[in-house]
Amino acid sequence: MLQKRLTYLLVCALCSCVATMYMLRDRTGVFNGDKRALSPELRKAQPNGLTFVTAASATNGPPPVSCDSECRRFQRLMAEWPRDKPKAALVYLVHRIEYIVPSIQSVSDFFCRQFDYPIVIFHEAGPFSSPGTRNQVLSAAAWNSSRVFFQQVEFKLPTFLTKPVPAEIKCHSKIGYRHMCRFQAKGVFDQPVIKELEYMWQLDDDSRLLSSVTYDIFRFMHNRHLDYGYVWRHLDALACVTGLWEATSEFLRRTKIKPQFFDKWAEPYIFYNNFEVSRLSVWLSADYRSYVDYIDSKGGIYYHRWGDAPIKGIAVSIFIPENRTHFFTDIGYQHGGFVNGDTNFNHVTAYSENPQIRTIL
Length: 361
Ligand SMILES: Nc1nc2c(ncn2[C@@H]2O[C@H](COP(=O)(O)OP(=O)(O)OP(=O)(O)O)[C@@H](O)[C@H]2O)c(=O)[nH]1
Ligand SMILES: [Mg+2]
Description:
- Helices cover 42% and strands 14% of the residues.
- By secondary structure, the chain is an alpha/beta fold.
- The protein binds guanosine-5'-triphosphate and magnesium ion.
């Protein structure tokens, strides 16, 4: 009898214990559906518990990008990388063979030959997937073609966009260009090769070095604790940034993040980011991720052509102290009609639609 009673008491105690644990878990919200939808980074980025819808939360975070044989080759290079040298690479997204060959020739002759940093080339399926085109690029990397790595990517419209994406918008740009902007602002930081790096030097296929770079710019950034290096500040066309500054202010209000120098970063300021040397920890941080996911979720990349330059320029003004940015004036560089250090080159008159900007520049 006593034994039966003891067993009964034990079962009751166990049941109430399990029920209490379940209720507690529910109340603390650890397994609450809303919070689980956010990535751990996003949860961390919102200490005030905000759960605004972001592209990442809408899609349950970006799916992991697989690492192919080129990516594994890159990982092996990084695993053997000298310990006293910054892990860094020159990074391109390309679609024009006739542009990229001379660009690779110039960086190969004027920088990589001396300082031996790898080059990563992102491209879509097409000519760059073929050995013939790849060999043309490799032969331009005369210093060491084994240091060039190809990574194929695929661009799709995000599924969270609610309205159809028009091919024609005020800010003239093809949809491929808008995919490019989204990739450079966000997708590139999901790539496993990029996650290997401490610094990246992003260039366009129409970027050219004009003369030897006399010092290792990655060590320069590292030694001076710099996060962002650029060759020029420029202006975007106002039609291309419609609503971007407002969306950013809304993000800052919601997150209560204190920006570094956003108050001085007037619309439509950009860094001319066809030449951009930056520290990866900025772009891989939970704060930047929460910002870019928020901006992405607004759809302005496709509806207005919010570019990677204005998005990342704003992010620099929010997340990086101004004294950790660096204006490279001593590098012979060309992009289209722009030549670094050429004071006659001035787009301001063409672009200064914002009267506030005319007084800043
Ligand atoms: N894969 C891919 N790359 C693209 C696409 N559009 C642009 N790119 C690449 O993205 C980089 C920037 O494109 P650009 O056309 O130079 O853009 P931009 O510098 O704003 O414009 P420009 O002043 O005309 O040079 C270049 O390396 C292009 O090859 C695209 O649709 N697909
Ligand atoms: Mg360009």
